[in-house]
Every structure is written in C-alpha cells, then in structure tokens.
Design goal:
The complex is a heterodimer of chains A (about 250) and B (about 325). Chain A has about 250 residues and is an alpha+beta fold. Chain A has nine helices and eleven strands. Chain A has a four-stranded mixed beta sheet with strand order 8-1-10-9, covered by helices on one side. Chain B has one domain: Formate dehydrogenase/DMSO reductase fold, CATH 1.20.1630. Classes of the chains: A alpha+beta (about 250), B mainly alpha (about 325). Chains A and B meet through helix 4 and helix 5 of A and helix 3 and helix 4 of B.
C-alpha cells in the first residue's frame, strides 16, 4: 500500500485528542508507528485446493445469492484429471474474479462503470452506468465477465459486496463444505488469510499477465493441454463455466 | 473455442468506419492540394466524391456498433449516451469522442459540397477549407483508433501488437481510396468535364492505392513475422492463421485476393505511366474490379482479425 492512501481513522483521532496532545505529538514524531494509522481494507481470498472436493456448493450458492441468469456463472470449479494408469490424479480448481490490483477490465472501461473500490479493493460494475460494450469481456485474461441477459450489462463476481458490506463473508466462502475458501483483509496482518499467506506456498493464476490477482491458491494444479502434450500425459480439464472449456 | 462476444456488427463497424475515415481524409487532402483548396477543377470535383462518401459510411458503421451493445439489446436504447458523459484513458472513450467529432465535421464538410453549384469562392468556401484541415487529422485519428481499440489488451495476444493500429490505418486509407475510385468509376463518367484530367486523377489514385497496398503488405509481413518469432501466447495466437482454422481465409481470402491480385493489376497499368510516361489507360471494368477486390480485402482483414483475436487467448493457467 502506498503511504498516500493511508489515513487516520476518526476513532483513533478522537482517542488521541482525549489522551492529550503529548501522545499525539509522539505519534507525529514517529510516523512509522502503526497504531495511529489504519490502512484501507484489501479483501482477498485464499483457496486451499487440498481441501476442495469439487462438490460445486460454491457455484450453486453463488448463483442463488446473486441471482445469476441461467446459462451464466460468476464462479465455478474446474476438474483436472491427468496421468496414465496407474499414476493418475484428479484435482479441483475453483475459479472466481481475481479482483486484480491492476484490473485490465477497469482500464478499458469507457464509461467508468467498472472500478476498483479504493476502500476495500473490490472491483465492481455499476449496472446503472454500464452500456454493455463488452470491452471488459475481451480485456479480462481470466474470462470472468459476461453480459447479464436481464440487465444487458457486464456482470461478474464482486466478493458478494452486499454481504461483505454487512460484515458477512461471501456466499461461496460461507457454504464451502471443506473450508477450502478463506476470505479476509490482506492488509490486516492478524487476519486468518494473512497468516496463511505468510506460512504457505501460494500461487496466483496467469501471473505473467501482470494483473496482480487478489485470489491466491495453495497447491493449485496449473496443468493445461500443452503440458499434457509435452509430458505425454492424458489430461482432461472439465469446467462448469458457461462455456464448457477453460479460457 | 472462446466466446465471440464481438460479432458481425463490430467487424462491419471497424470496416465501414475505417473506410469512411480513409475516404474523408483522402478527400480533404486532395482538396487542399489544389492551392489550399482555392483552385477550381478536377481536384475539387474529386474531393466532392470523398466528402459525400465519408459521413454515410462512418454513420452506418457507428449505428452497427450501437446494435451490438448489451444495453441496447436489453432495451436501454439510449444508454450509449453514457459514453459522452465522461472521458477517460480507455481507447474506447477517446475513440468515441474522436468518432463523434469526425461525424459532425464530416457532415458539415459534406454539406459544403452538397450543392451542384459548389465551387471554390462560393459563400461556403472558407468553411469548407477550415473543415478540410480538420478532416485530415480526424480521419487518420478514427482509422488509427479502430486498431488501438483492439490492440489495448494483453489478454488478447493476437491483437496486442503495436503494429495492428498501423495495419488498420493503412488498410483504411487504401479502402477509402478504393471507395472513392469505385463510385467515381460507376457514377462519375457522365459528369466528366475534361477527359485528360479524369484519367490523370484515375492514375493518381490507382498509383497511390498501389503504394498503400505495398505498405500494407509490408505491415502484414512484419505483423506475422514478429508474432511467429516469439514464443508463448503470441505464437500460439498467430498459429490460427499459420496453419490454424483461419489460414485459408487469411492467406487466400485476404493476402492473395485483397492485396496481391489488385496490386499486380494496378502494377500492370500504372508502371508504363510511372516509368515511361506513357498515357494512362485502365479499362473501366478493370478499375471497378480492383476497387471491389481492395474493399472486400479490407472487410476480410477486419473479419479475420476480430475473429482470430477472440478464438485465441493466454496460454497456461
């Protein structure tokens, strides 16, 4: 986080006022002291694929919670089967919007309808402004966006903003049977997600695109058909995305 | 197969918008070449054709893209106005403003030519000259923007090339010239004033079209070569025209029919005049054929590029 985005919360400010100017002077004299400075939230998700069983409860919960039109998906799970008998494996890769730090969808939006919220880093679409030009659908390297047939505007996962704003976790996290999805504030070092990120090897999807995703994975299988061809392995990737192929 | 979110309306928009912008820029520059627009004669008559062509082509193309908008399809017919309530660094935002400006200026420019009695020195002449100066940069801007629009996204490796906008610009100018030549060939012979000047302009146009096609072949060569020399997503993406599903359409439909064939025919008729100063005489049917080939080639280019960009993507996960 850049220094310019930090801010003193009103509560801390009032506390300082109450405890006298000497304390305030100390805080000013030591700007690195974290107690008086609160970073804005940076919501992220960590998906522990070792705990995922591919039950699709998250996909279903997401569709129900967000009233996603039939035939479209905001979140889905990819099944990756690989290997030649008897050396085989099957793993699961839950997918959702990465809420990128450098969202390509935002930089191409001509109306400003899609933007990254400065207060929590969630990338949202304002369906009252979006004209449905589909530029963001082209720009997303993860194929996360679609046109909502009801509104005619771009749509995607927004970490269930309506729930998160009320102190709840996203619906997919809430429903996950294996507790594979961990949601939290990346800027809070005490949050569960921050502790797990610090103590595990994690990856993001397509890091070479430079989008700096906020969705991290533990033990994700990054296998694709090209690996299969090179290694002489049988690989089958099945997705439950709206189009039955990984993009 | 990835989703084709941008279909025929967008392809037609890129094609018609480019052709109209090219025709407008060419018309204005030819107009200005006759003593800053002050000399009556064949340049003026010629510029008139381009001035009349530019607005309908661009407006038709723009109407197409509105049809493709999700909001329009969902019944919010005028939601596209939101484009003009803001401006940001998105290529589509800047492009929309440039496009809107071009439509207004080209309509005004066409209006100054609309009277049969239009000639240098009439009451609209000063306005016509001012508009012509604006038409050249705006036309080039619209033509360039159609390529920048596609080139802006790392997620679309086929499009994400700095030379794509150049390719679209050269193609826009070339199809613009061809469009003017075509309508002039079809409808202009009746109002011929001076046989020699008419042929002189046909020569000028055909030779510049030939030059533009030559440039286009070079740009295509660079585009394909650099893409093929890289590895990873870009190489995989360009494979779609290097043996993939769009190979025949690209190499035969666009490169051979849209570039090499018209260039070869033009070469045959232009070279004797260019090298040996012989009288230029291209049969009218041949002229019409060349123009048709160039215009179809321009459409093919937009079609192949728009489809190829969407059926390819980043490799790996």
């Amino acid at each position: 986080m850049s220094e310019s985005k930090t801010q003193v919360s009103r509560r801390d400010f009032l506390k300082k006022l109450a405890s006298g100017s000497a304390v305030a002077a100390t805080a000013v004299a030591a700007p690195g002291v974290a107690i008086s400075v609160e970073k804005p939230k940076r919501y992220g998700m960590l998906i522990d694929t070792r705990r995922c069983v591919g039950c699709e409860a998250c996909s279903v919960a997401c569709k129900t919670e967000n009233d996603v039109p039939l035939g479209e998906t905001r979140s889905w799970v990819e099944f990756i089967e690989k290997g030649n008998f008897p050396n085989v494996s099957r793993s699961f890769l839950p997918r959702l919007c990465n809420q990128c730090e450098k969202p390509q969808c935002v930089s191409v939006c001509p109306t400003g309808a899609t933007y990254k919220r400065p207060e929590d880093g969630i990338v949202v679409v304002d369906s009252d402004i979006c004209i449905g030009c589909k530029y963001c659908l082209q720009a997303c390297p993860y194929g996360m966006r679609f046109i909502n047939t009801k509104t005619g505007t771009a749509d995607k996962c927004d970490f269930c903003l309506h729930r998160v704003a009320n102190g709840l976790v996203p619906s997919c996290v809430n429903t996950c049977q294996g507790k594979a999805r961990i949601f939290g504030d990346l800027n809070d070092p005490e949050s569960e997600i921050s502790r797990l990120l610090a103590t595990n090897t994690t990856t993001v999807l397509r890091p070479e695109m430079g989008t700096e995703p906020m969705v991290y994975y533990i033990d994700a299988d990054h296998t694709d058909e090209r690996d299969a061809a090179r290694q002489g392995l049988y690989v089958r990737i099945e997705t439950h995305r709206r189009q039955q192929k990984r993009v | 197969m990835h989703e084709l979110n941008w279909g025929l309306p967008v392809i037609l928009y890129l094609f018609l918008g480019g052709m109209g912008a090219g025709a407008g820029a060419v018309s204005a520059s030819i107009f200005l070449r006759s003593g800053g627009g002050d000399l009556a004669g064949s340049n003026f008559r010629f510029a008139r054709w381009g001035a009349m062509l530019a607005p309908p082509l661009v407006i038709l193309g723009t109407a197409m893209i509105v049809l493709e908008l999700g909001s329009f399809q969902a019944g919010n017919w005028f939601r596209f106005i939101n484009l003009f309530l803001t401006i940001n660094l998105s290529p589509m935002s800047i492009g929309s403003w440039v496009l809107a400006l071009f439509i207004l200026v080209s309509l005004a420019y066409a209006y100054t030519f609309i009277s049969k009695a239009a000639r240098p020195g009439d009451e609209l002449h000063n306005m016509r000259k001012m508009l012509a100066w604006a038409m050249v940069p705006l036309g080039v801007g619209v033509a360039l923007y159609t390529g920048i629009l596609l080139g802006a996204m790392p997620a679309r490796p086929f499009w994400n090339s700095p030379i794509l906008a150049m390719l679209f610009l050269v193609s826009a100018l070339s199809t613009g010239v061809a469009a003017i030549l075509l309508v002039r060939s079809l409808f202009g012979h009746k109002q011929k004033v001076n046989e020699q000047a008419f042929e002189q302009h046909s020569y000028l146009l055909s030779s510049s079209d030939m030059l533009l096609i030559g440039m286009e072949i070079l740009v295509i060569f660079l585009f394909v070569m650099y893409a093929h020399l890289t590895i990873g997503s870009v190489e995989e993406a360009v494979a779609v025209i290097m043996g993939g599903e769009l190979t025949t359409l690209f190499w035969f439909g666009f490169v051979v029919l849209g570039l090499l064939l018209p260039a070869a025919i033009e070469l045959k008729y232009v070279m004797p005049t260019l090298l040996y100063q012989k009288a230029y005489a291209m049969p009218r049917t041949m002229e019409i054929l060349i123009c048709a080939l160039v215009i179809v080639g321009g459409f093919m280019l937009r079609y192949i590029v728009v489809i190829a960009g969407q059926v390819t993507g980043p490799v790996g996960i």
